[in-house]
Design a protein that fits this description.
globular, Alpha-Beta Plaits, single chain, 333 residues, 35% helix, two-stranded antiparallel ribbon, Arc Repressor Mutant, subunit A, 3 domains, 10 helices, ten-stranded antiparallel β-sheet, alpha+beta
């Protein structure tokens, strides 16, 4: 049983966070962040050369920022090279069994992240599953509903998650303003020519994490969504993929395997949520997209986990014992 307790919300503290963020999104830091995304977060000497900012200034600014926020980068391995496939799982817990569902989702050892969400589901979770065990893993996830802990679930298998660098072209550092050019973006998407294949995209081993790099706007004023977008065909999907770097509110994305659809992770100001859905609706009306659905991830509830190396056995590979997982599930039910 979850213990309920009194919590205090300091409204004045929100203003402090906003001022802290705006102070760090000055013109010099924006130039540094943009260069780090383009030339690599570890190569500060090249960042200095490309921006014309003295190396000591670049180093001191990055060092000062990391002292406050923690490391700006993390290791982002290609799961496909490890024999793992990404699964995004949306689960609707039976009322009163939310904690049990959370435990059931994490008990296999292959859950990488879990958070509460809104929009037809109660839990949003990410899993890195051994390719050879996907059928049994799907079977286990469906058992969460069969055992009476959840009423429904949706499972989406995707290729490796790719992050979308923050596009500071739409930020005015002097005015401290982000410009959401919805009409321009709609026109740009519709006119965009297709890119090459996105089934096997090229990923960098080291990449930015949108939660570690300074966010473009304060969390208290923002919304975080996972969008499942279905396109009319592969051609329109490729056209959208080629334009995605312009859409800075999309912080990451992945293609759903064997379908002309994508998962888009959106981090956007509350004031722009209505325009976001009008943008998606218009793309559907123009027959560029077929459909879209959204769940809102509750910021502050996400918990990230690592996959234990003990699950990998030499000469055997990744282990997933279905009966053991179901046995643990029975204890929760």
């Amino acid at each position: 049983m979850t213990a309920l307790k009194t919590q205090v919300v300091n409204l004045h503290g929100y203003n402090d966070k906003i001022r802290w963020l705006m102070k760090r999104l000055d013109l010099t830091n924006v130039r540094i962040f943009s260069a780090m995304q383009e030339f690599g977060p570890r190569n500060l000497l090249e960042v200095s050369r490309r921006t014309g900012i003295p190396f000591t200034s670049v180093y001191n600014r990055v060092n000062k920022l990391e002292a406050t926020t923690g490391p700006l980068v993390h290791l982002n391995p290609m799961l496909s090279k490890l024999g793992l496939v990404s699964l995004t799982v949306l689960t609707n817990a039976k009322p009163g069994y939310e904690a049990e569902v959370e435990q059931a989702l994490r008990t296999t050892g292959y859950c990488r992240a879990i958070a509460r969400c809104e929009g037809g589901f109660t839990h949003h979770s990410e899993h890195a599953v051994p390719y050879v065990h996907i059928p049994q893993y799907r079977k286990y996830l469906k058992q969460i509903s069969s055992k009476g802990l959840a009423t429904s679930s949706t499972i989406l298998a995707t290729n490796d998650y790719r992050q979308n660098p923050i596009n500071f072209h739409y930020y005015d550092a002097k005015l401290k303003e982000w410009r959401f050019r919805w009409a321009r973006w709609l026109n740009g998407v519709l006119k965009q020519r297709p890119s090459g294949s996105i089934d096997q995209p090229t990923f960098q081993t080291i990449s930015f994490d949108s939660k570690d790099l300074i966010s473009p706007y304060p969390a208290e004023m923002s919304a975080y969504y996972d969008l499942h977008v279905e396109f009319q065909n592969l051609t329109t999907l490729k056209r959208f993929y080629a334009y995605i770097s312009e859409l800075f509110f999309i912080v990451g994305f992945s293609k759903v395997l064997k379908h002309d659809s994508m998962l888009l992770r959106v981090y956007i100001l509350e004031s722009q949520v209505t325009s976001l859905f009008e943008f998606l609706s218009e793309l559907c009306r123009r027959r560029f997209m077929k459909s879209y659905s959204a769940v809102r991830v509750v910021t502050g509830t996400e918990e990230r986990m690592t996959i234990s190396p003990e699950l990998f056995v030499d000469r055997e590979g990744w282990r997933f014992v279905y009966n053991d997982s179901v046995s643990k599930l029975r204890q929760l039910a």
